[in-house]
Amino acid sequence: MKLFTGLIFCSLVLGASGLLSFLGEAARGTWDMIRAYHDMREANYIGADKYFHARGNYDAAQRGPGAWAAKVISDGRENFQRFTDRGAADSRADQAANEWGRSGKDPNHFRPAGLPDKY
After folding, report:
1. b/e string for 8-29 if b means 16 or more Cβ within 10 A?
2. How far is it, in rounded angstroms, from Cα 70 to Cα 12?
3. Are residues 111 and 58 in contact, defined by beta-carbon separation less than 8 angstroms?
4. What's the burial of 83, exposed, middle or buried (CB within 10 Å: 0-12/13-18/19+)?
5. How far apart are CA 51 and CA 58, in angstroms?
6. Cα 95-25-74 angle, rounded to 5 deg
7. Gap between the Cα atoms of 17 and 20, Å rounded
8. Which of 18-22, 36-40, 103-107 has the lowest mean pLDDT?
9. 40-77: string of b/e by CB count within 10 Å (b at 16+)?
């Protein structure tokens, strides 16, 4: 009985640490997305939108669970904007850039010529 109780206790501890690890990496992935958004606003560079979408998703996806956070944020944002201030075609193009970055492909594919190296 003591062995069984010990195994259950260890399973709970290991499960909780796994959940905490997942939540920590998801939070860092969320921060990657926020940083890309702030960089996009700061750059204020015409034609750079898709690059920053791809970069934020790429950075978040490098964290494992951050890819989950990136997908939730990207999908929610695009679904909201599709019905408010932009058309469906622009939203689909943003989602393509999001998926490109999340899949681990180089976000520089979308980088416009002349965008400062800072970004």
Report:
1. eeeeeeeeeeeeeeeeebbebb
2. 28
3. no
4. exposed
5. 10
6. 15
7. 5
8. 18-22
9. beebebeebbbbbbbbbbbbbbbbebbbbbbbebbeeb
End-to-end CA distance of the chain: 59
Structure confidence at residue 7 (pLDDT)? 47
Q: Is the pLDDT of residue 14 over 70?
A: no
Contact in structure between 56 and 37 (CB atoms under 8 Å): yes
Our separate counts of H helices and E strands in the chain read 4, 0
Q: Is the pLDDT at 49 greater than 70, yes or no?
A: yes
More reliable by pLDDT, 63 or 105 = 105
Q: Which of 81, 80, 32 minimizes the C-alpha distance to 57?
A: 32
Whether the predicted model's global pTM rises above the 0.90 cut: no
Q: What single letter denotes the amino acid at residue 66?
A: G
Q: What percentage of the chain exceeds 90 in pLDDT?
A: 57
